[in-house]
Write a structure and sequence with these properties.
Blueprint lengths: L1 E5 L4 E4 L2 H7 L5 E6 L21 H10 E9 L6 H10 L23
Parallel strand pairs: 3-4
Antiparallel strand pairs: 1-2
Helix pairs in contact: 2-3
Length: about 110
């Protein structure tokens, strides 16, 4: 874990989320905003298959770090968000809202042009 920058209002670190959560004091974070690996197997890249997104233990660490009433915003892939949501819920969070960005890509299969 490497200290990135700090001032009287904030401290930023650079490193693995799991390493950070082992160091951060319980009940000390107001909010967590994260874009974890979507676990899609994108181009067979290791960073997209880290295995942390679907594990309850990952989100339990987040739960412990958040202050009471804190919130978490987590990005997920359209095909795997439900697995992340279940792991988050199993860790003790209450899912309040889900925001989806639905978009089309490619050509519809029903078009014979």
């Amino acid at each position: 874990m490497k200290l990135y920058t700090e001032n009287e209002h904030y401290t930023l670190y650079q490193g693995s989320m799991l390493d950070m959560l082992d160091v951060i004091e319980p009940n000390s974070i107001d909010s967590i905003i994260t874009d974890p690996p979507y676990e899609l197997g994108f181009m067979d890249k290791d960073w997209d298959n880290a295995g942390v997104s679907f594990k309850k233990e990952t989100w339990e660490k987040c739960y412990e770090a958040l202050k009471p009433g804190g919130y978490m915003l987590v990005f997920g892939g359209s095909r795997t968000y439900h697995r992340i949501a279940v792991a988050i819920e199993d860790a003790g969070f209450e899912i309040r809202d889900t925001i989806m960005w639905l978009y089309g890509s490619g050509f519809p299969k029903s078009m014979n042009i």
